[in-house]
Amino acid sequence: xxxxxxxxxxxxxxxxxxxxxxxxxxxxxxxxxxxxxxxxxxxxxxxxxxxxxxxxxxxxxxxxxxxxxxxxxxxxxxxxxxxxxxxxxxxxxxxxxxxxxxxxxxxxxxxxxxxxxxxxxxxxxxxxxxxxxxxxxxxxxxxxxxxxxxxxxxxxxxxxxxxxxxxxxxxxxxxxxxxxxxxxxxxxxxxxxxxxxxxxxxxxxxxxxxxxxxxxxxxxxxxxxxxxxxxxxxxxxxxxxxxxxxxxxxxxxxxxxxxxxxxxxxxxxxxxxxxxxxxxxxxxxxxxxxxxxxxxxxxxxxxxxxxxxxxxxxxxxxxxxxxxxxxxxxxxxxxxxxxxxxxxxxxxxxxxxxxxxxxxxxxxxxxxxxxxxxxxx
Length: 377
Known about the structure:
The protein is globular. α1 runs antiparallel to α2 (about 345-375). Helices cover about 15% and strands about 45% of the residues. It has a single domain (about 1-375), classed as YVTN repeat-like/Quinoprotein amine dehydrogenase (Methylamine Dehydrogenase, Chain H, 7 Propeller), CATH 2.130.10.10. It is mainly beta and about 375 residues long.
């Protein structure tokens, strides 16, 4: 009987500790030391690593310079590490191999690769680059090399460590350039990119890696990004924006949203989630590329989604990861990615607490009942 009592008590403690541990994993509230602004977030498609750039200065206008940091999420073992690499001016978000083992990021001296197993970055390509994308098969990088009067799109073979295809595009754009979005097709055989070879528009073009052929897909484009099984882009016609996607091997697109009020598209963790923001107001939305559902999440300085669907929100040097109950009080509106509705903070917090209490209460009641039976009460 003594042995049975001991086993029951052990089971009770183990279950309660597991419940507490699970609850602790849901929220992470982090502060990046000596940083006033965070930008260009890149959650890993696998695991719990997040790369981001941090600057000791507040971001003003379109120019921002900073260093790369890595956040490793793991409950009590969560940590933030500054990566020893050159600074970067207006870099795009880093990109990850599909298995999350290696990341590639831009600096003012060139493109570096970071193997998580080793921890120290290595220079991969030396020179000035803008924009970066990795192919779905993890074998190719694409980026722009910008020179006065011309921009060169480069496809880089990660296995051979060499450039495998280049296209030189004249620079005729008469306004300030903003955005160097790139997106591979799902079969890794072509790249979609905005170009600046028109005086007053930025056409979306398809660059075929095998044949070298270049095709205009849309006459004016604000942003392009790879989603799950499709490439998404924001088309512009006068003052109207619309969201489209390209599925399959052709460049033919279909309409996703006729009146799309956002300006940008950026990847979350993996290909399922795309984050879109209206630059002037900071209104932000999450696009689920499995269903094409668009879910506004209110005004955010910066936001992303982890591969497990948890929301990541940035406010100055602060990073919050988790569901609505984890968000600071000033974030009154947030997103529940598991449903089709947007909830306000207070009701969702109450729901979260109620569910947690219910879980622990029922578990405790059941285990207590079993314990009483074991003890022969």
